[in-house]
Design a protein that fits this description.
This protein is an alpha+beta fold and 128 residues long. The protein has 2 helices and 7 strands; from the N terminus they run αβββαββββ.
């Protein structure tokens, strides 16, 4: 599986959304005001000596209510930032850590409504 698939599946098991409904991989649904999306991002170079990959990923949270969006992204950050030596969907993650605190991207116009959007980036190390 891909990092974004592993993370989205993990977030679903932790109650942060339902895949295909309000939790998506690599694509924001313009028709939805309330959603969580996991994007792959450039990570760091693989470590050849220790045979590990270091991909990155980004989480974006959209919600009509600012406080709800903030609470959700803070909860996701806390959930993921604590992962060490854990298998997710059969992939061995040495660690997952947040690169920074969540960032408010502002209000986004979606159809006839507006939604609040937050973003946070993560780094990983995967044992091959």
């Amino acid at each position: 599986m891909t990092v974004e698939s592993d993370i989205a599946t993990y977030l679903q098991t932790k109650g942060h959304g339902t895949l295909g409904s309000d939790l998506f991989i690599a694509f924001i649904r313009d028709s939805s005001l309330n959603q969580v999306v996991v994007f792959p991002t450039a990570g760091r170079a693989p470590h050849k000596v220790f045979d590990v990959r270091r991909p990155g990923f980004q989480i974006r949270v959209r919600n009509e209510n600012y406080s709800t969006a903030r609470t959700k992204i803070d909860s996701i950050r806390s959930e993921l930032h604590s992962i060490v030596n854990t298998a997710l969907s059969g992939t061995d993650y040495a660690y997952i850590y947040a690169n920074q605190d969540p960032v408010y991207l502002g209000k986004v116009r979606v159809g006839n409504g507006e939604t609040n959007e937050f973003s946070i980036n993560f780094s990983t190390e995967i044992k091959d």
